[in-house]
């Protein structure tokens, strides 16, 4: 697989980039070099290597949900800028 100047022009058009002829040629060479390097990965023998999604072990650090008592209403309302009937009163956001 290789990248042509037409491929670079197509991607530049999609990205709404205006490239000079020199830039098109430069990016074509660079992208082909990247693809060639990536193709070297196909030379590796991965037989017997299990697929992984992360290179380091990752464990869920979230705790289980536990039902517990809520804070008392008077303690919660201490942080309210304004209160009305035991509820936070906020400026209207809809007319």
From TrEMBL:
<dbReference type="InterPro" id="IPR036113">
    <property type="entry name" value="Asp/Glu-ADT_sf_sub_c"/>
</dbReference>
<protein>
    <recommendedName>
        <fullName>Aspartyl/glutamyl-tRNA(Asn/Gln) amidotransferase subunit C</fullName>
        <ecNumber>6.3.5.-</ecNumber>
    </recommendedName>
</protein>
<comment type="subunit">
    <text>Heterotrimer of A, B and C subunits.</text>
</comment>
<comment type="similarity">
    <text>Belongs to the GatC family.</text>
</comment>
<comment type="function">
    <text>Allows the formation of correctly charged Asn-tRNA(Asn) or Gln-tRNA(Gln) through the transamidation of misacylated Asp-tRNA(Asn) or Glu-tRNA(Gln) in organisms which lack either or both of asparaginyl-tRNA or glutaminyl-tRNA synthetases. The reaction takes place in the presence of glutamine and ATP through an activated phospho-Asp-tRNA(Asn) or phospho-Glu-tRNA(Gln).</text>
</comment>
<dbReference type="InterPro" id="IPR003837">
    <property type="entry name" value="GatC"/>
</dbReference>
<keyword id="KW-0547">Nucleotide-binding</keyword>
<keyword id="KW-0067">ATP-binding</keyword>
<keyword id="KW-0648">Protein biosynthesis</keyword>
<dbReference type="Pfam" id="PF02686">
    <property type="entry name" value="GatC"/>
</dbReference>
<keyword id="KW-0436">Ligase</keyword>
């Amino acid at each position: 697989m290789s990248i042509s100047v037409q491929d670079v022009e197509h991607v530049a058009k999609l990205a709404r980039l205006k490239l000079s002829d020199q830039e098109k040629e430069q990016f074509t060479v660079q992208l082909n070099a990247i693809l060639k390097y990536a193709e070297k990965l196909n030379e590796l023998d991965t037989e017997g290597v299990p697929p992984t999604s992360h290179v380091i072990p990752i464990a869920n650090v979230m705790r289980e949900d536990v039902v517990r008592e809520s804070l008392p209403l008077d303690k919660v309302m201490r942080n309210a800028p304004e209160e009305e009937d035991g509820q936070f009163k906020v400026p209207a956001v809809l007319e």
